[in-house]
Each structure stands twice: as structure tokens, then as C-alpha cells.
Amino acid sequence: MTEIAEIGRDPDAFEAFYTEHIERIQRFVARRVDDPYLAADLTADVFLAAIDAAGGYRANLGTPIGWLYGIARNVVSAEKRRHARELRANRRISGRRLLTADDVTRLEERIDAEASARALLRAMDELPPGERAALELVALDGLSPQDAAQVLGIRLPTMRVRLHRARGRLRSQSLHLVPTPTEMTS
To answer: Does the keyword field hold Transcription (predicted)?
Structure first.
């Protein structure tokens, strides 16, 4: 009988332990798993875990084979939990269409086309709230300055001042993405 503590340090001790218990562990795993490749992987995982845990083995808590079966049970249970998580994840995405190469190309084109709008939005984040609201309504939402003034509850001259200031701030950031007054009224 091999001393358990030695299997983590001595390759010969591990080989003797492995030879002594491989058949029983293979049967244990094979009763719980129907894929031969998975069974082989799990069996190997059991013995790797045994090497790692060998230093903590206590003979007064049970026999070496009982200890090894406990490790095998933990390894198989962990695999079943991993497999169940994988199945749940697959169920969550089942029925959802995966992106094709054409979908990705269209999305990349759309993202590229919206780059200037993203830059404008980032720059607009730096504007005072009143100027930002005025600019959003006119430049992004397409309202006339008169309609935007009505939405904001301000007079048209105040709206024009806010738009002028917002455009000036954005120009100072080298962003020429905002429509000019001529473009806004057309």
C-alpha cells in the first residue's frame, strides 16, 4: 500500500498508487459519464487532484480509496455543474440568430458611418446643459430653432444665442460637425 503523502512528491509512489486504483476510478467515472473522451479526461483530473491534495490526506478520516472516491465525486460533480451552466447559456441564446459575415460587415459600416455623430456626442457632453439641449434639439433631432425654443420654454433669441455659443465651443474643439444656421433653416 502506497503512502498517500508521498504521491505528491515521489513519481514512483504516484505510479504505484495510480496502478493500484486506476481501474476502480475508471469504473466510477464510466458509470457517470457516457463520453469516452470525457471519461478519460475526468479520470486524469481525479489523479491530478489527488496529487494536489495528497499533503492534506488524513488516514484517521478514511481509507485511501475512500479519499480517492471523494476526489472523483468532486471532479465529476464539478464537470456536471460546468456542463449544466453551458446548457443554460446555450438555451439563453438558442433561437437567437448568430451574426453572419454580412451582418458584421453591415454593422462595421454603420459604426464607421456614425463615428462623427459619436464624436459630436462626446464633445456635446462638455457643453453647459442649456446649450447642449438646444443643440440636441436642432442638430440631432432636426427641430427648427423656433420649435426647439418652444420645447425648452425659452424665447427664440435666447435659443439662437445658445446655439451660437454651442457651435462656437464645438468649433474651438476642432469639431465641424454641427450644421450652420443656413443648414438648420432649410
So the answer is: yes
